[in-house]
Amino acid sequence: MASGTVFVQIRNDVVGKYGVKHEPIEISGERLPAPEIRMSDSHIKAFRQLAVGSLNHKKNWTHGEIYFEFAMRRNVLTVSVQLESNYNMANLFNKIPPQ
To answer: CB–CB of 2/55 below 8 Å?
Structure first.
Protein backbone atom coordinates (compact mmCIF):
# COMPACT_ATOMS: atom_id res chain seq x y z
CA MET A 1 0.00 0.00 0.00
CA ALA A 2 1.33 3.44 -0.89
CA SER A 3 -1.13 5.61 1.07
CA GLY A 4 -4.04 5.46 3.47
CA THR A 5 -5.25 6.05 7.00
CA VAL A 6 -4.79 3.81 10.02
CA PHE A 7 -7.43 4.50 12.66
CA VAL A 8 -7.67 3.40 16.29
CA GLN A 9 -10.78 3.97 18.40
CA ILE A 10 -10.26 3.95 22.16
CA ARG A 11 -13.06 3.24 24.63
CA ASN A 12 -12.44 2.95 28.38
CA ASP A 13 -8.69 3.15 27.74
CA VAL A 14 -8.81 0.02 25.55
CA VAL A 15 -8.61 -0.28 21.77
CA GLY A 16 -12.19 -0.93 20.71
CA LYS A 17 -11.83 -0.85 16.94
CA TYR A 18 -9.00 -0.35 14.46
CA GLY A 19 -8.38 -0.62 10.76
CA VAL A 20 -6.83 0.74 7.59
CA LYS A 21 -8.55 2.80 4.92
CA HIS A 22 -6.73 2.70 1.60
CA GLU A 23 -6.77 5.97 -0.32
CA PRO A 24 -5.10 5.93 -3.72
CA ILE A 25 -3.10 9.12 -4.23
CA GLU A 26 -3.52 9.40 -7.98
CA ILE A 27 -6.51 8.31 -10.02
CA SER A 28 -6.67 8.87 -13.77
CA GLY A 29 -9.83 8.07 -15.66
CA GLU A 30 -11.61 4.97 -14.44
CA ARG A 31 -8.52 2.86 -13.80
CA LEU A 32 -6.24 2.99 -10.80
CA PRO A 33 -2.55 3.14 -11.64
CA ALA A 34 -0.37 0.28 -10.48
CA PRO A 35 1.49 1.43 -7.37
CA GLU A 36 5.15 1.92 -8.19
CA ILE A 37 6.31 2.67 -4.67
CA ARG A 38 5.44 0.55 -1.66
CA MET A 39 6.45 0.75 1.96
CA SER A 40 9.68 -1.11 2.67
CA ASP A 41 10.41 -2.94 5.92
CA SER A 42 12.30 0.12 7.19
CA HIS A 43 9.33 2.38 6.35
CA ILE A 44 6.97 0.05 8.24
CA LYS A 45 9.33 -0.02 11.24
CA ALA A 46 9.56 3.81 11.28
CA PHE A 47 5.77 4.12 10.95
CA ARG A 48 5.25 1.74 13.88
CA GLN A 49 7.75 3.63 16.06
CA LEU A 50 6.00 6.91 15.27
CA ALA A 51 2.57 5.41 16.07
CA VAL A 52 3.71 3.98 19.40
CA GLY A 53 5.55 7.21 20.25
CA SER A 54 2.46 9.29 19.53
CA LEU A 55 0.65 7.51 22.37
CA ASN A 56 2.81 9.55 24.75
CA HIS A 57 0.66 12.54 23.74
CA LYS A 58 -2.55 10.77 24.82
CA LYS A 59 -2.84 12.08 28.34
CA ASN A 60 -5.78 12.19 30.74
CA TRP A 61 -8.39 10.80 28.34
CA THR A 62 -9.86 7.33 27.96
CA HIS A 63 -12.23 7.77 25.00
CA GLY A 64 -11.28 9.00 21.55
CA GLU A 65 -9.73 8.31 18.17
CA ILE A 66 -6.25 8.41 16.73
CA TYR A 67 -5.72 8.74 12.97
CA PHE A 68 -2.43 8.12 11.18
CA GLU A 69 -2.55 9.36 7.59
CA PHE A 70 0.40 8.14 5.54
CA ALA A 71 1.66 8.35 1.99
CA MET A 72 4.73 7.33 0.05
CA ARG A 73 6.04 10.14 -2.15
CA ARG A 74 9.26 9.71 -4.11
CA ASN A 75 10.22 6.84 -1.79
CA VAL A 76 9.80 9.04 1.30
CA LEU A 77 7.22 8.18 3.95
CA THR A 78 5.08 11.12 5.10
CA VAL A 79 2.82 10.71 8.14
CA SER A 80 0.28 12.95 9.84
CA VAL A 81 -1.11 12.09 13.30
CA GLN A 82 -4.40 13.36 14.70
CA LEU A 83 -5.51 12.62 18.27
CA GLU A 84 -9.10 13.35 19.29
CA SER A 85 -10.42 13.02 22.83
CA ASN A 86 -14.09 12.15 23.29
CA TYR A 87 -13.72 11.75 27.04
CA ASN A 88 -15.71 14.84 28.01
CA MET A 89 -18.59 13.96 25.70
CA ALA A 90 -18.75 10.42 27.09
CA ASN A 91 -19.09 11.82 30.62
CA LEU A 92 -21.85 14.21 29.53
CA PHE A 93 -23.95 11.41 28.08
CA ASN A 94 -23.68 9.41 31.29
CA LYS A 95 -24.84 12.36 33.42
CA ILE A 96 -27.91 13.41 31.43
CA PRO A 97 -31.04 12.29 33.32
CA PRO A 98 -33.59 10.33 31.27
CA GLN A 99 -36.69 12.27 30.26
So the answer is: no
| Mean predicted lDDT score pLDDT of the chain | 79
pLDDT greater than 80 at residue 18: yes
- What is the rounded distance in angstroms from the CA atom of residue 71 to the CA atom of residue 73? 6
Give the predicted TM-score (pTM) of the model: 0.71
Predicted confidence at residue 88, as pLDDT, reads 58
Between the alpha carbon of residue 96 and those of residues 35, 52, 87, the distances in Å are 50, 35, 15
- Compute CA distances 94 → 5, 58, 88, 98, whole Å: 31, 22, 10, 10
21 Cβ partners below 8 Å, 6+ apart? Answer: 4, 5, 7
Q: What average pLDDT does the segment 39-57 reach?
A: 89
Query: From edge to edge, which strands make up the β-sheet containing 64-73?
Result: 14-22, 3-11, 64-73, 76-85
